[in-house]
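A quick aside before the break. I want you to see a complete sequence-to-structure record at least once, exactly as it would be stored in a machine-readable document. Don't worry about memorizing anything.
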Amino acid sequence: MAVLHLMAAVAAHEGFALWAVTVDHALRPESAAEAAQVAQICAGLGVPHAVLRWQHGAVAGNLMEAARKARYGLMADWAAGQGISHILLGHTADDQAETFLMGLARGAGIDGLVGMRRHWDEGAVRFLRPFLVVSRADLRGYLTRQGVAWIEDPSNDNDRFTRVKARRALRALKPLGITIDRLNGVIVNLLEAQGAVQAATADAAKRLCRSSEAGEVIFDHKLWRHEGGEVQRRVLIAALRWISGAGYAPRGSGVFRAMMAIAQGRDTTLSGCRIKLSDAVFRVMREPRAVAGLVAPPGALWDGRWQVEGPFEPGQELRALGADGLRQCKDWKATGHSRDSLLVSPAVWYDGTLIAAPIAGYGADFSARIVAPFTDFILSH
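That is the input. The structure line, written in tokens, reads:
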């Protein structure tokens, strides 16, 4: 609510277009009414508003993580469709401190203790968190002074959620001098150290691996064997996240198992990716079952990173090329890409008819590219 009112004032002063968007997770009976209330407030401010509803059945596993991933995916697709380049989020210094404690409870390393990202890209849309240095109390104070009420999410008091426990732990730690401001200062120090480590990792990646136009990362096996374990781990995680689109690194135990498999010369899978070894190289690529059934309309990003352009006709859609599609691409070997990477590349389909498979050299009028190159990704993550 504070972000909405502040940005409405800034937009009016600076003269840029502003939209507001609410994601209705459909997890509580009140959520639709709350979204409608936000729409009314936006109308009063003259700000166009959209409601995005998360369509889901029973959610297995980590509910908060599933909701987070759905939320950002819905917003990114909506923004891209509207030609919107930036989305601002309202996370505060309190959220940063809570995230730090949650990482501490997991026994996280430096990457898990630097709090929330200040910004990141999902396709052509950049997400920003400009209020990470502002306390929740300060934003609420601003709303109070403006005479603006806000809606409290009941889940903020639900002890089932780790973030709620961290919030309460912060209150208990305050008498020890462990405050929100103090923890945010620690995060700033850790960010400086992380920056140095990331720069070293990016330099190592230039030696160890390269990305292909087919969306895989190809590692030099000999150079990999002579690299230090921490650099190996970081570059491998970067490859997995770039390919899978995961917002966070896989669990440490999973990364350890993957690195052991590589050391032993065994193929493996992790985080929706396949790691396939040969004597000279090993390749990290999308796992076929991760994109099976994944459909996107023309103009939208497919699998969170592929932009396909061309003369689309009504009824056409984006799906994985797959084995049936690849059989129709008679000249795929001329592309120089591996068969495995082409199977999981984007293709244009009309019902069961293959229209184009740009990466496999089929359909000259269409093109496909990854919107965030691996070199850029590894520097920003």
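Two observations worth writing down. The two ends are 29 Å apart (CA to CA). The mean pLDDT is 92. We'll return to this after the break.
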